[in-house]
Every structure is written in structure tokens, then in C-alpha cells.
Write a structure and sequence with these properties.
single chain; 147 residues; alpha+beta; Lipocalin; eight-stranded antiparallel beta barrel; 3 helices; globular
Length: 147
């Protein structure tokens, strides 16, 4: 009888765990970068991509570059590495708010103090769509898993 109860408990745990892994809830993934094309320099034929890197302690890092290669960017971008802006994020259901500034970045010496606020939505497909400050055009960031 104990073996049957143990087997049933193991079966219920396994089924619950499998269901939880396949259930699709909005959330931030922490094992990679979010990337969006956020601008361009037509005269130089350069596209600008903005990267976001989230940590489980509520910290977020932001960097805008001309590289559309998350694997390469992940090698030099983030906590203890290079970044343009650093701040915090908060999640409320599927809504996300982000506040970043450059006060801890080397870029602040060149640009002066810059502060940016984002509001947006976490989508089911590992995408975050954000509005920056008072802009009208939403930018959607796709997730790229990185080492």
C-alpha cells in the first residue's frame, strides 16, 4: 500500500511539474537579452538596436549599439561590464515599468545625465512591447537566449 501511495504521489508531482512548465504566463526571462531595432542613421546606413538585460533582483541594464548579434553583445554588456543605462523594473501582472539612467555609466561623462522611463506589456511569446517616456511609437523587444 505504501508503494502505491508513493507511486501516486510521484505521478501527481510529475504531472503538476510538466503542466507548470508548459503553462504560458507572461514573465521576464533572465537567461538572455531582449533586443529591438530602435533607430537608424540613414546617411551612414546604420541601424540602431537597443538591448535590455534583466536580473532577478529587479535590476535592468540598457545598451544601444549598431550590432544585431546578441551572442556577441552578451560578452561585454551587463552587470560588471559595459552598459549605457542602469535601473530598475517592476512587473504587475503582464504590465512592466522600467526606469533607467546613466549616472553609473562612463557614457554620462560624454552625454551628461540621461534618464529614461518605459511602460509596457509582457507578451506571451517572450516579447516585451514598450513606450519610452512620452513617445507614441511602441517598440517591441524580442528575446534572444545567450550563454
Amino acid at each position: 500500500m505504501k508503494r502505491i501511495l508513493f507511486f501516486l504521489a510521484l505521478l501527481v508531482t510529475t504531472i503538476s511539474s510538466a503542466y507548470a512548465q508548459t503553462e504560458t504566463k507572461p514573465g521576464i526571462l533572465l537567461n538572455g537579452l531582449y533586443i529591438a531595432k530602435t533607430g537608424s542613421v540613414p546617411a551612414a546606413n546604420i541601424e540602431i538596436f537597443t538591448y535590455l538585460l534583466f536580473y532577478d533582483d529587479g535590476t535592468v541594464y540598457l545598451q544601444a549599439v549598431s550590432s544585431n548579434d546578441p551572442q556577441s553583445v552578451s560578452k561585454w554588456f551587463g552587470r560588471g561590464k559595459k552598459f549605457s543605462q542602469k535601473g530598475t523594473y517592476k512587473i504587475d501582472g503582464k504590465n512592466i515599468t522600467i526606469h533607467v539612467d546613466n549616472k553609473d555609466s562612463e557614457d554620462s561623462k560624454l552625454e551628461g545625465f540621461v534618464e529614461t522611463n518605459y511602460k509596457g506589456t509582457i507578451k506571451q511569446n517572450n516579447q516585451i512591447c514598450l513606450l519610452r517616456d512620452e513617445e507614441k511609437e511602441e517598440k517591441c523587444f524580442d528575446f534572444a537566449k545567450t550563454p
